[in-house]
Specification:
Length: 204
């Protein structure tokens, strides 16, 4: 597969041992892989819409959602990353850092620490910063933030893409990645503006 050089900025390249987990042996191009993942993500979304249980802030749900989104394509879907990446905590720290984040997010919701949108933006940033999985962290993390908004604040999802394709290089993705990098340094205004512009673009 001629993958890595087609990745947009801010995407995580896969290690060779992770590409071994591909369930389809005939995949030759990044485009084919994208299409397979997209179909899997679509079926994962159907699962998500049908489920009733609301234990969104649990490790079990974090992993189950990832498995539902990517498990038809990747054998390691739903299991934590075991290799170091340019983004993300040391692999041995993932479980503990995730538990702390889920506790914090629960506390924010119960105590009204932040507005719902700010809580979701901070939750999303911390989750993708931990980078639980070898791939799919962005797509999974955006859905996790939307589920958090729904289950804990009864709010509609963020319009992350706002009419663009967030998986490809374009101005919207540049703004998204720049906002996450600012949040890495403790500056949250750009990510707040990003999720807020998504809302105002929809006129809500
Ligand atoms: N500096 C950063 N700090 C925190 N998170 C980041 C940073 N740069 C990128 N990310 C996150 O990592 C994601 C890319 O990781 P990964 O390739 O695992 O996800 P993906 O779902 O396959 O990709 P994408 O969402 O980019 O299509 C980005 O979408 C973004 O959410
Ligand atoms: Mg990726």
């Amino acid at each position: 597969m001629n993958g890595a050089d087609d990745e947009p900025d801010g995407a995580t390249p896969l290690d060779p041992d992770e590409t071994v987990g591909l369930k389809f042996k005939h995949v030759a191009t990044r485009g084919e892989l994208d299409a397979l993942e997209q179909a899997n993500v679509a079926s994962g979304l159907i699962w998500l819409k049908r489920r009733r249980k609301r234990d969104v802030l649990s490790e079990a749900f974090v992993r189950e959602l990832h498995r539902r989104l990517f498990g038809d394509v990747w054998r390691w879907a739903g299991t934590f990353r075991q290799t170091e990446k340019t983004i993300g905590v040391d692999p041995t720290q993932i479980g503990e850092r995730l538990r702390m984040l889920l506790d914090d997010a629960c506390y924010w919701a119960e105590n009204g620490t932040y507005s719902p949108l700010e809580a979701a933006a901070r939750f999303h940033h911390r989750l993708v910063q931990i980078h639980c999985f070898p791939n799919g962290n962005g797509r999974h993390g955006r859905m996790m933030a939307d589920e958090y908004l729904r289950a804990y604040f009864d709010r509609p999802p963020i319009d992350w893409a706002a009419g663009h394709d967030l998986l490809r290089s374009n101005a919207r993705r540049d703004e998204y990645i720049a906002a996450l990098r600012a949040a890495d340094k403790g500056e949250f205004d750009p990510i707040l503006a990003f999720v807020d512009s998504a809302r105002s673009l929809k006129g809500s």
